[in-house]
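Q: What would this complex look like in 3D?
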Amino acid sequence: MSLKRLALVSGVLLLVFAFIFFVIDLYDKTQVEKINNGLDTRLANFDYAKSIALDSINILTIKNQEEYDSAKQRYKKIMTEDLWNEYFPSNKYEGGEKNLTIRVKNISGEIINDDHFIFNIEAILTNDGVENSVRFLVYVKNGLVYKIQSLGVVDSNS
Amino acid sequence: MGYKNLILGVSVITLLLTGCSDYKKLRENVVENNQRVDTILSSYEQSKEVSKDLGKAIVMSLKSRDVNGLLEVPEVKDNQELKEFLAIEVKNLSDTIYDYIESNNEQVDMNENMSKAMRIENPERFIDSVLEVHYFVDDNGKVEQMFLVQLPNGSIGCISIYWLGGAYLESKAFGTC
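A: Here is my prediction, written as structure tokens for the whole assembly.
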């Protein structure tokens, strides 16, 4: 096979492959769109609100200035400024070193409307080795947590 | 040229099959999600509907300190476990609220410095202001019908009745009352 013929065959093959990839890509796109159109999104806001409600209760376990600084940036996106200020009114970390951890046991939510939810979180709170089962109500509206209410200890085990 | 066509054909089929298997997984995820959404929302609606009358009866019993009315609700009548639970827990919570009202009013009457406006003259209206009723649903469609009382002295009382797809599951109570 001459060099010229080889170049021609390679060029044609390249074009054929490019066309095939174009067709496959187009097919991919329409298939994904078709599948996504069949997705039931009625709980999409609820699921998103649930994820930020779960994240928000970690505000209780901020241990030091370093954690405060990194949490501050993240929490701006998930909770109202008023709520953040409720926990840190002086705009800095003043709690001293804490040894507090939270492990979520159960979460359920109330649907008030499409953008307003209340989550009921049951968690194990460990403070210096002492475990307590506690409940929180976390209120989320328009994608922001605006209230975290503790219902106190449900059950305690030292 | 024969084997070149073969390679080309195999390549195209492989690419298509790889694409198809992705769609299969994507489609399965969508179907799974849709089933989950349907289960949760229909269980939520069914449970809310079925527990509505019991909810009204519990609120009335808390206000009247009388549990007899709620024991006549169909969901309770034939359910010995729920009947016993409500008879004890609703009565306890109601007594706690009325004890609080009584002690508050005594305190106001005895203390001349306290405004008489702090007396609780209408217990039913007071109960409306301290009682919250919530319907929480979890990922499995289990619904918690929660009656939460938060007294101004910080005491909390909670009665929860759990439902699944409109059927009674269990009941629990907690609080500091």
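A: To summarize the key features: The longest strand of chain B covers residues 142-150. The CA atoms of residues 105 and 165 of chain B lie 44 Å apart.
Q: Very helpful, thank you.
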